[in-house]
Design brief:
Number of helices of chain B: 11
Order of helices and strands of chain B: HHHHHHHHHHH
Strand content of chain B: under 5%
Distance between the termini of chain A: 19 Å
Structural class of chain A: alpha/beta
Oligomer: heterodimer
Shape of chain A: globular
Order of helices and strands of chain A: EEEHEHEHHHEHEEE
Largest sheet of chain B: none
Number of strands of chain B: 0
Strand order of the largest sheet of chain A: 5-6-7-3-8-9
Radius of gyration of chain B: 20 Å
Strand content of chain A: 15-25%
Number of strands of chain A: 9
């Protein structure tokens, strides 16, 4: 599903690479937990996989596709949840945000409405569908952001600190979505600095230290 | 659904989103209409004071300046909206979503121009309607329909400047002052509010190397029957040439800026 080969990333004017010769293979149906101290490079690795940052060296493949040669198909297979609370249009409603993303994700018009409804149901957002984003709590906004991540049915979801701002019910909804994603053959990479982890059975634990990735 | 149709649907989604955001500010359109009314009224009374050999009458200057005002509305909307739109997407974190979308950042940036252009076209129509209905702007009705393709051609000729500014926003994260500088420069050298012939000869060459001058000459010719320095077809060819040469260059500049920012890791920084 995900194949990261010899990826190195070095920031300009910094001697030490933030990621050094990273190799990672995640098969279909797995949940991996990526940990590491603040600034270890977890988000950078996720952004490289998502095609936001180009590595200095190495290759990344998702379902056998590479971003440089098959950008559109590659991005269709990826869902990215960034850390924080950004990425939503504050003056648009929940439904408008979801519908807009479905269109940018090039979901076929015949499926678009169904995908939006499914996201509203799956993440228990039906009662907020017509509410503007700036009138929702942080936890509710996070649910919308998670719904956007899964809406276009990606094969690989990259989750950067996904349980931020979520209450117990929100966490349960998130974990259920990840479990369902795995059952349908998808792969998830859950990233958080530490703590008890995702709270769901993980197939492997990854740790970034000094630019090196260790697995257990 | 074919890839091309999905692309069009995604571009229209960006336009639709901008429309939804525009509608969410309920008084925005009304305030724009009133601003236009005040601007037209202002220039009407200014025109009553203008007695210059270049204009046969006060009304001739009014017709001249109203077309200039309308063109500036389109120019400002296009040149400001795209770079400031990119900047706003960066600040709100929504640009990241564009970058990871299958539609992609390049198409999204190009699509950011659609709603501002459509809105500017509506505002130009309102400007001309106010000028004609309230202040007697003499429209040359037989050629008025030709203004539509002229405006479209003008938009295509102005757009590359907007895309170049958007590229600058990606690289240096700010380009608002550059847009203002460019708009002011074009207003000065393009003949929006006064004829280029009154400029010092050392500056007159600038009017030949940018698209506003032919766009204005052609629009004035079709809309109010003003005389044109060359032929109408020559002005149209000049506009088309600006679009044909500069559009691919400007789109390439966005693509290059995206690549540079990806390599530097600064694509979503602001």
């Amino acid at each position: 599903m995900l194949l990261v080969s010899s990826v190195t990333k070095r920031w300009p004017r910094q001697d030490k690479p933030v990621l050094c010769d990273i190799d990672l293979e995640l098969p279909a149906g797995e949940l991996a937990w990526l940990t590491g101290d603040n600034g270890a490079g977890k988000t950078t690795l996720l952004r490289i996989i998502a095609g936001i940052i180009a590595p200095n060296a190495g290759r990344i493949g998702v379902c056998g596709l590479e971003s440089q040669t098959s950008r559109r198909a590659y991005q269709q297979r990826i869902g990215l949840l960034t850390a924080g609370s950004s990425g939503l249009y504050a003056r648009m409603t929940v439904r408008q945000n979801l519908d807009y993303w479905a269109r940018l994700a090039l979901v076929a018009v015949s499926h678009r409405a169904a995908y939006v409804e499914e996201a509203l149901t799956r993440f228990e957002l039906e009662e907020f569908a017509g509410r503007r984003m700036d009138r929702m709590s942080m936890g509710q906004r996070q649910r919308v952001r998670i719904a956007l991540t899964f809406l276009h049915r990606p094969k690989l979801v990259l989750l950067d600190e996904p349980s931020n701002s979520l209450d117990d019910e929100g966490c349960a909804v998130l974990l259920a979505a990840v479990e369902e994603h795995k059952r349908s053959g998808g792969t998830a990479l859950w990233c958080s600095p530490g703590g008890d982890g995702p709270g769901a059975p993980i197939e492997r634990r990854l740790r970034l230290v000094s630019g090196q990735l260790t697995q257990s | 659904m074919s890839g091309a149709r999905l692309n069009v649907a995604a571009a229209l989604a960006v336009m639709r989103r901008d429309f939804q955001l525009f509608l969410s500010y309920r008084l925005r359109f009304v305030s724009q209409v009133f601003s236009t009314l005040f601007a037209v009224t202002l220039f009407y009374y200014v025109s009553r004071l203008v007695s210059a050999p270049q204009f046969a009458s006060h009304d001739a200057y009014f017709a001249y300046v109203i077309v200039g005002l309308a063109a500036m509305q389109i120019l400002t909307a296009t040149l400001h909206a795209v770079p400031t739109g990119v900047r706003a997407e960066l600040v709100t974190g929504t640009f990241e979503r564009m970058v990871v979308s299958p539609y992609g950042p390049l198409g999204s940036i190009v699509a950011l121009s659609l709603f501002p252009m459509a809105l500017a076209t509506v505002m130009v129509t309102i400007t001309l309607a106010i000028a004609a209905l309230l202040f007697g702007l003499p429209l040359h009705w037989p050629t008025v329909p030709l203004v539509v393709p002229v405006v479209l051609l003008g938009l295509l000729a102005f757009l590359p400047f907007a895309f170049l500014l958007a590229s600058a926003v990606l690289i240096v994260k700010q380009a608002g002052s550059a847009a203002t500088f460019l708009i002011s420069g074009l207003a000065l050298a393009g003949g929006s509010f006064f004829p280029v012939s009154v400029l010092p000869s050392a500056l007159r060459w600038i009017s030949n190397v940018q698209p506003l001058t032919p766009a204005l000459e052609l629009t004035r010719h079709e809309l109010v029957g003003a005389a044109i320095s060359g032929s109408a077809s020559l002005a149209a060819v000049k506009l088309a040439a600006f679009a044909v040469v500069l559009l691919p260059v400007s789109i390439l500049s966005i693509s290059t800026a995206l690549k540079v920012c990806r390599a530097r890791g600064t694509l979503i920084e602001y």
